[in-house]
Design brief:
heterotrimer, A mainly alpha, B alpha/beta, C mainly alpha, A: mainly alpha, two-stranded antiparallel ribbon, C: mainly alpha, 19 helices, 2 strands, 2% strand, binds adenosine-5'-diphosphate, binds magnesium ion
């Protein structure tokens, strides 16, 4: 039962991560996802401090603001100060993460947040925090939050599917059709922040990145369409999370760490086996093959 | 005079404050095939991007069918340079062409059977119907170009703006593309094509626009295709103009005075 | 004991400070090359990817022997580099995705090992946590020895290989030529990068060591273009950050060192990006303001020049109203600007009327000359219609330098009339 609750929670969260991650990976923004995941830390601590408790709404708001803030930071450094993009990402998120670590070491006691939690998350404790509805035990709170997040993001991605796809593939063309590229960009960044924050409690800051990036990247290896890629990513995230859980139970090690590891292994396996699995579909074409 | 499809009025465009196009000023008649010619780095792509509102103008303006771009979006289809997108993107040929229908369906409304038909017929016109289900990563350069044109065709616009459609494509594709362009012209559409081959440009275009950071000449091909214009277009940048551009960027100088159009004329 | 007293008396404080500062110098100088190669985030990934190697070395060796951990870290960092390259070459995965995969996957593996060690109740394990957030206070004599030894090796490599690394960052032909030499130099640079990170993670932590490779280089880049200066400046910024970080964590021992080092470096980067004379946001803003002011005062001079030009008789002076009839000046701005011009002896004021001083007339003449030369240039060389050139010249007249003016005049064959058949004032009239 406890196994199931933990696995279910992890699966929902992993699905939510895979949804937003698919667009991050196709937009070549994986490291921006990494930056957001680190940057929500100060947001969470500040929200704890301001609200004086683990009030979810405060925490979500604080962390989302921090997530969007870091993307704004990156953009400012890139556009206004004209720093190359990789360095812009690097300086922005390490700055916010440093603030976060300082806040955690100073106020960690008061806000009931320690450095381990930042790194590994507390998914093992998910079953302890129950959602009681009129005296009825509905199950772990995190599981429902994960499900809610996944549902919410599914709606967003479903509604915004055309815009997100088009602005990822060809933003200039999207703009010529009168689609606001910036609006969809920030909608996605907001969604990534939200996902990161919710996942953060369960799997920690750094391993969120594994959930966001690795399954979509695995799917990207041979997905034919973006829809295809999202579905495959959901599948890969399920196998990653479930196998990760059992490996961790077997070796008695960190659950989230083990999930990230199985994710990496799964990616490398799929990449290595792909040439064997899929016969090369290369077609003799009458044109010149371009690199573009 | 014929209806004007596109007008650029004293258009100056800068990147990071450095002007790359100076005071471009021309009019393009509707229903013609117009070539935009100039050496590499002349600012041809920038001109198109500015026309499409992708790069803001530092001064001047663009009119499409004598209207603001915003009101004319449905009438204008843009075919960016093939290299401007990542062809590894997970999408099939038909998915890309369907994007062209968004001007009609919007972002949220469902596709009607007619929209599918139009996307398919656009693919058929470029000879790529058989490839509809193929992943775009598997296309050759020429096929990619055809898909991009098909996407624009699906838009059913009045004015088509193509950035280097013939660059790096095979001869068969070039022939197919020019045939489609001519077909569209005969349906009364206006075709603006960036091109770099001087050999074929007289054959392809009835009007030419020569640019190299500034407008060298624009007008009917037989009038403007002259030794002199070619020499000034391809004879390198004007040193003084380049120096001024550097200076504008370095000193962070405005290329127009604040509200200069209100100033009384008194030089 | 205050920090500075301790600095002179307490050897363990000296170790900490020396170690942190030394690491900061290494990180920022090696990081500069990575930054120029646009490989900053690879350093980030490598730094996360050291964890499994460190833990494995610990498991195998059974204690925290610094050298063993270093070797473990180095191997695991290099494997991470190779995996990133492998993913990119064997699939269509983009570089940022490859980096993120390796970063998070390897780090996850590290966490797995770390929890494995923790659950095996090894008495020595406490120290390993330091790799996550850094703990400079844990720098011992043996660590310092390692830092000194490998650090001198790294700095010597940078010094001897300076030209080769420079070519790797800037010389496109050199890189395009490819071949064994380029590969070897890249290998060398990558190796000393990994080594630097290995030396630093324990004191500064995984994420924050990555920052040290990036942040000082970005800050230094705001001030200089020359590679040599860049490296010195970035090392200097590294030293300050390292010192401040060590100081703060001495004053407040519960604080990890890494974040304070990074925060200091971040503050310096912010100041640099905002204030550096060439690229800074604030100086740019003031430059633009100054331009506006220059434009306005020259326009006033010019308006008076035109008033003089147009009037038949020599007038003693012109009123505000006259000026406003020439040009849509903002009235209150105009009054202020006139006063400033009078102070600079460019204008003469008498009973609320203004006229040009001889200095002012000379200056105004230059502006008008620039305007008309530029108009002529636009019509003759840029091929513009005479009725389209005014607006452009209206802005450029203020920008044209004396050298450009000479050049223009020469190219145009020292003309006398502009496209509107108005006389171009000579240089000295
Ligand atoms: N995004 C950009 N940022 C800065 N400079 C640019 C950018 N795009 C183009 N340029 C510069 O503008 C000039 C014109 O470029 P472009 O319009 O692409 O020329 P063309 O299409 O005629 O080859 C070139 O000097 C190029 O370096
Ligand atoms: Mg171009």
């Amino acid at each position: 039962m406890i196994d199931l609750e933990i696995i279910l929670t992890a699966v929902f969260i992993a699905w939510a991560c895979a949804l937003v991650g698919s667009f991050l990976v196709t937009r070549e923004m994986a490291m921006v996802g990494d930056a957001i995941a680190h940057a929500v830390l100060p947001g969470i601590v500040l929200a704890y401090l301001i609200s004086g408790g683990r009030d979810s709404l405060w925490m979500l708001t604080g962390a989302c603001l921090a997530g969007v803030f870091v993307t704004l930071c990156i953009e400012w450094v890139q556009k206004k100060a004209r720093v190359q993009s990789d360095a812009a990402i690097g300086i922005s998120y390490t700055f916010l993460f440093a603030i976060g670590v300082i806040l955690v070491s100073k106020y960690g006691q008061t806000v009931d947040l320690d450095q381990d939690c930042v790194l590994y998350g507390e998914i093992a404790y998910v079953p302890l925090d129950r959602w009681m509805l009129g005296g009825l035990d509905m199950g772990p709170r995190q599981t429902w939050i994960g499900l809610g997040l996944f549902t919410g993001l599914s709606v967003l991605i479903f509604r915004g599917f055309r815009a997100l796809t088009l602005t990822s593939f060809d933003p200039s063309y999207a703009a010529t059709l009168g689609i606001s590229v910036a609006v969809w960009h920030y909608a996605l960044m907001g969604a990534v922040s939200l996902t990161t924050v919710v996942s953060f409690e369960s799997v920690g800051a750094i391993l969120v990145v594994a959930l966001v990036v690795i399954p979509p990247a695995t799917a990207y290896l041979f997905a034919k369409t973006i829809k295809n890629m999202i579905l495959l990513a959901l599948g890969f995230s399920t196998t990653m999370v479930v196998s990760g859980y059992y490996v961790s139970a077997w070796l008695d090690v960190s659950i989230s760490g083990s999930m990230a590891t199985t994710g990496l292994v799964q990616f490398l396996l799929v990449m290595g086996l792909k040439p064997l699995l899929i016969q090369s579909e290369k077609i003799p074409s009458h044109g010149l093959k371009s690199k573009g | 005079m014929k209806e004007i499809a596109l007008e650029a009025h004293n258009l100056t465009v800068s990147y990071h404050r450095k002007p790359v196009l100076w005071n471009i000023d021309f009019k393009i008649p509707a229903g013609e095939i117009i070539g935009i010619m100039g050496p590499n780095g002349a600012g041809k792509s920038t001109l198109l991007k500015s026309i499409m509102g992708l790069v803001p103008a530092s001064s001047g303006y663009v009119r499409i069918f004598n209207q603001n771009l915003k009101t004319q979006r449905k009438k204008i289809a843009y075919v960016p340079q093939r290299q401007s997108v990542d062809w590894d993107f997970p999408a099939r040929v038909i998915d890309v062409v369907k994007m062209g229908r968004y001007t009609h369906t919007g972002l949220f409304r469902r596709f009607k059977p007619m929209d599918y038909e139009k996307a398919k017929s656009a693919l058929e016109k470029v000879g790529m119907l058989a490839f509809a289900e193929r992943q775009i990563a598997q296309l050759s350069g020429g096929q990619q170009q055809r898909v991009f044109l098909a996407r624009a065709l699906a838009q059913e616009a009045e004015l088509y703006i193509l950035d280097e459609p013939f660059a790096g494509v095979d001869a068969a594709t070039e022939e197919a593309l020019i045939k489609i362009i001519r077909d569209l012209k005969s349906q009364g559409k206006t075709m603006v094509v960036v091109h770099h081959d001087l050999q074929t440009c007289r054959e392809y275009f009835s009007h030419l626009v020569f640019i190299n950071a500034r407008l060298v000449a624009s007008g009917p091909t037989q009038e403007v295709f002259t030794e002199k214009n070619l020499a000034s277009t391809y004879g390198g940048k004007l040193t003084l103009l380049s120096k001024m551009a550097e200076l504008v960027a370095e000193k962070e100088f405005p290329v127009r005075e604040k509200g200069s159009s209100e100033f009384k004329k008194s030089s | 004991m205050s920090f500075f007293e301790a600095l002179f008396q307490n050897p363990s404080v000296q170790w900490v400070v020396l170690g942190t500062v030394g690491l900061a110098v290494l990180g920022s100088s090696v990081g500069t090359f990575n930054f120029l190669q646009k490989r900053s985030l690879i350093g980030d990934a490598v730094s996360h990817a050291l964890l499994p190697g460190i833990c494995l070395a610990f498991i195998l060796k059974g204690n925290k022997d610094p050298l063993a951990l270093l070797v473990g870290a180095f191997i695991s960092g290099w494997i991470a580099l190779l995996v990133i390259d492998l993913i990119q070459s064997k699939s269509k995965t983009k570089s940022d995705t490859a980096i993120a995969i390796v970063l998070s996957g390897f780090f996850g593996l590290g966490i797995v090992f770390l929890t494995l060690i923790q659950s095996s109740e090894n008495a020595n394990q406490a120290g390993l946590d330091a790799f996550l957030f850094g703990n400079a206070a844990s720098i011992q004599k043996a660590d310092l020895l390692n830092i000194a030894m490998f650090g001198s090796f790294i700095l010597l490599s940078l010094f001897l290989g300076f030209r080769a690394f420079k070519a790797l960052c800037f010389d496109k032909d050199f890189i395009a030529a490819g071949g064994f030499r380029v590969k070897l130099i890249q290998f060398w640079l990558s190796s000393i990068t990994v080594l630097t990170i290995c030396l630093g993670v324990q004191a500064l932590g995984v994420v924050l060591m990555a920052a040290l490779l990036i942040t000082p280089a970005v800050a230094a880049r705001a001030w200089t273009n020359k590679l040599g200066n860049l490296i010195f400046l970035s090392s200097g910024i590294g030293i300050i950050s390292g010192f401040v970080g060590a100081w703060i964590s001495y004053e407040s021992p519960s604080m990890p060192t890494g974040p304070w080092v990074v925060l200091t470096a971040s503050a310096i980067v912010l100041v640099s990006l905002v204030f550096s004379p060439k690229r800074g946001v604030v100086p740019r803003y003031f430059r633009q303001k100054a331009n506006q002011k220059k434009i306005q005062s020259e326009n006033i001079l010019k308006a008076l020049f035109h008033l003089e030009e147009n009037s038949e008789t020599a007038s003693t002076g012109y009123s505000l109203k006259d000026l406003l009839s020439m040009r849509a000046f903002q009235r209150d701005q105009l009054v202020g600007a006139l006063k400033a011009l009078v102070r600079k002896n460019l204008l003469l004021e008498e009973d609320g009327t203004y006229s040009l001083s001889s200095l002012g007339r000379q200056k105004a003449g230059k502006v008008v000359r620039n305007h008309r030369l530029w108009e002529l240039y636009l019509t003759q060389y840029v091929g513009m219609e005479a009725d389209h050139v005014h607006e452009d010249a209206e802005a450029m007249e203020h920008l044209i330098t004396p050298e450009l003016e000479k050049e223009l005049s020469k190219v145009l064959n020292h003309p006398e009339y502009d496209p509107h058949q108005r006389q171009i004032p000579g240089k000295h009239d």
